[in-house]
Amino acid sequence: MSTETGGPAFPRPYFENQNGSEWSASQDGMSLRDWFAGKAIPELMRDPGDRAPFCEVAKLAYEMADAMLAARKAGAL
Asked: Which of 8, 14, 27, 39 is the most exposed place for a label (fewest CB within 10 A)?
């Protein structure tokens, strides 16, 4: 079973200017799931209580990210 990632958060398409002298390679960027988890961490660490171990904070961050992806898929605003 694969984990839903939400697709890339910051993809960058290939770019080349008209004369071909400047270009930028394409990149997928991080997944939206990783971005959501990263954004959740400051809130989780604001008052860590008994969640202080980093492995517990990381687990909660991804649980929150998965909930955000599920809400997004369901059409929640």
From this structure: 14
